[in-house]
Each structure stands twice: as C-alpha cells, then as structure tokens.
Specification:
Number of helices: 6
Distance between the termini: 55 Å
Shape: globular
Order of helices and strands: HEEEEEEEEEHEHHHEEEEEH
Length: 297
C-alpha cells in the first residue's frame, strides 16, 4: 500500500533538499521565476533565490527545480562567477556592463550606482579560481555545521601560512586557543567565521545571548593576520564590533585609538607581533576573553 500523499511529498522534499545547494540556479516550475539560491530553509520547506536587484523569490521545495542558467549575451550566462575587485555571480548585463550577486545576497552595484548605471565593466572581469568560488559559496550561506567552521579555520590559517606568516600562525593559534579556553569555545555557537561579506572569512567570536539569530548576527569581533603593506610589519588585527563592550579594565589593552573602518560604532586594534612576547600576547587574549564574557551576560 502506498503511503499517504503528505508523506510522499515529505520524502520528495527531503530528497530535493539534498539536490539543491547554495549558489545553484533554480526555477519555480509553476511560475518560471528563477534566481540564485542564497538560503535553504528546512523549517519552511523552501529555498530563497535572488533573481536581481530587489527581486527575491521564496520557492517551495515541491516547486523548485535546478535550472540551466539562461544566456545574458553571447558570452555570459546568468549566474556565472565573475570578479572585478571582488568575486560575484553575474545576474544582469546592459551593454558593456553587468550587475553581480555578492556574498551578502544582494546585487552590486546598488543604490544610486544601480539607478544611474555605474555598473561593473565586462572588459574588467578577471579569472575566478575554484578556491575563490568555494570561498564565495561558503560566505553566501548563513548555515554551517561545526565541522565546516573548523575546516574553514584551518583553510584560513593555510592562507596565512602561504602569505609567509608561518611563525605568526603558531602564535595566533596559542592566542585563539587561550580565548576559547576562557569562554568555553564551541564552533558554530560562540566562534565561527565571517560570512556575507566581500572580505576574507576570518575567525570570529560570537555572542550567544540571542540564540534566535544566526551566528553571524551575533558577531562580537573578528581577527586577522597580515603584513603592513608599507612597513612589512606582521600584525594581528582585532576588530571589536562595539566600542561600548570594552570594559574599563580592558582599555589598557584596547585604548580608544582604533577606528570604525569596519563598524562605525566599533573599534580596531592592530598589534605588532614582533613587539610582543608570548606572555604579553596571552595577556591580550585574556583581556579579549574578559570583554567577551562581560558582553555576553
């Protein structure tokens, strides 16, 4: 005897969930609406697909199907990976210019630039590597497992090593592990990686007070290793999202000398690793953990 129709549909939907992935182009077979998948919503049995500026569709699994991306001109199909300054997925062409979907699920250029036609130039498109595509899709998705965050952390450290920062990576590992030991670190819960941004998926600390929101919405800070382009100095940059979180006791390590380059109300501290011994670096780790615990109450 066949199972009830509702059970058959649930099985079909579950199978469809495994077929459709972030970054796929899907179509609603009942309306022909289509777009790039930017989120998969198991509780609602639906996917969110962005078609273009201000055009987003929620498509039920039962109606969603993978779709051969249509041609935008003789050389480019909808959804093709492209790179100008940053990696994106092409969604529209007019003349010799194009619009692209970026990792925050929005199409760029946007705002005035979209209205006035200041789009990206087709002639400026650069080659996109498989590694860049993978990183874009990781940032486009807001839902990750613990293992995916651990894997991303290892990939980030591998990039830092490739940039000539092997000794600094070892010091960063000690710094980050010290913090995680103080806050009871758990990937995907109170630490992860930056998502929905054109910038690198650097390691993050994330508050846990509002568990109704995804991990990205609860970001406390992110951390990055790099070389100063002018001086060649090897730096650890700490970007804290809100200056108000920095306690009086911690301002000996995080004085008001930072800026809001990434967060208008936030704070940036850049540490020269060459100027800090191991004990001093761990003091910064303890101070950052103390700020985090106070903010997460």
């Amino acid at each position: 005897m066949n199972p009830p129709r509702s059970l058959r549909e649930k099985k079909t939907n579950k199978e469809k969930m495994t077929d459709i992935k972030i970054g796929d182009v899907v179509r609603n077979k009942t309306s022909d609406a289509f777009g790039v998948v930017v989120d998969i919503e198991p509780p609602k049995n639906a996917v969110i697909a962005v078609h273009g500026p201000d055009v987003t569709h929620r498509i039920k699994y039962v109606n969603a199907e993978l779709f051969q991306p249509p041609a935008l001109n003789k050389d480019f199909n909808y959804g093709r990976f492209v790179k100008d300054r940053f990696v994106g997925m092409m969604v529209k062409i007019e003349g010799d210019k194009y619009l692209a979907l970026c990792p925050d699920g929005k199409c760029y250029p946007k705002g005035k630039k979209y209205e006035t036609g200041h789009w990206y130039k087709l002639a400026d498109i650069k080659e996109v590597t498989e590694e860049e595509k993978e990183e874009f899709l990781f940032k486009l998705s807001v839902r990750h497992t613990e293992d995916e965050y651990v894997k991303r952390y290892e990939m980030t450290k591998a990039k830092w090593r490739a940039a000539g920062l092997e000794p600094e990576v070892k010091r960063f590992e000690a710094f980050f592990e010290r913090i995680l030991s103080r806050i009871g670190g758990k990937p995907g819960f109170n630490w992860g990686a930056r998502l929905s941004t054109v910038f690198a998926p650097d390691p993050t600390l994330n508050l846990t007070k509002n568990t109704q929101k995804d991990i990205q919405a609860n970001m406390f800070c992110f951390l990055s290793l790099g070389l100063d382009a002018r001086t060649g100095q090897k730096n650890l940059s700490i970007f804290i999202k809100e200056w108000k979180w920095i306690t009086e006791a911690a301002r000996v390590h995080f004085p008001r000398q930072g800026d809001g380059r990434f967060y208008p109300p936030g704070h940036c501290t850049v540490l020269s690793l060459e100027a800090l011994d191991e004990a001093a670096l761990l003091q910064y780790a303890d101070s950052l953990a103390q700020i985090y615990l106070a903010a997460d109450k």
